User: Which sequence fits this backbone?
């Protein structure tokens, strides 16, 4: 079956862009691999990215086939990236990564200070509200103390209001059967 030339050009352009993207992802993960002790995880992430990219190219762009010229253009895109801008982009990724690490360390320090304050004030709040939990009682809808936990919480000394939306019965609150 013959392919139209425009479709082949489209597939070649997408494969070339995918090769550039694959090289870019490889460089970003290489900076992560060299700056940290992680060695296997970035490699696995790159392999997963390549597998997803090849699957997409073969299934969506290639119409169910990963053609040989598409692989050639993928490798041309990677070769073009590595030949032209690898050093510049790697330095950029390294700067971005170090900035990210600095931001994370500042956020970590802020959370450590916040946790220290919460521990300090937690002791004070524990002393203040120590007796509040003893005063909480569960009431059922008819106003008696609820033992199975299906009612509402009310504080001792405060009368709970139930069924405010229902009208009071005329004969003292008792229902009669007809």
Assistant:
């Amino acid at each position: 079956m013959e392919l139209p030339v425009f479709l082949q050009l489209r597939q070649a352009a997408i494969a070339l862009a995918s090769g550039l993207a694959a090289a870019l992802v490889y460089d970003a993960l290489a900076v992560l691999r060299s700056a940290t002790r992680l060695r296997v995880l970035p490699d696995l992430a790159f392999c997963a990215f390549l597998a997803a990219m090849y699957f997409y190219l073969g299934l969506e762009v290639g119409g169910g086939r990963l053609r040989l010229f598409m692989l050639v253009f993928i490798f041309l895109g990677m070769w073009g990236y590595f030949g032209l801008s690898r050093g510049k982009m790697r330095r950029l990724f390294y700067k971005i990564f170090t900035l990210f690490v600095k931001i994370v360390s500042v956020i970590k320090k802020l959370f450590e200070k916040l946790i220290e304050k919460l521990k300090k004030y937690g002791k004070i709040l524990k002393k203040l509200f120590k007796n509040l939990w003893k005063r909480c009682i569960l009431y059922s809808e008819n106003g008696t103390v609820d033992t199975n936990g299906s009612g509402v919480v009310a504080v001792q000394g405060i009368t709970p209001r139930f069924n405010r939306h229902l009208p009071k019965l005329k004969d003292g609150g008792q229902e009669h059967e007809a």
Summary: The radius of gyration is 34 Å. The helical segments are 5-35, 40-61, 68-84, 86-128, 132-135. Residues 65 and 128 are 71 Å apart (CA to CA).
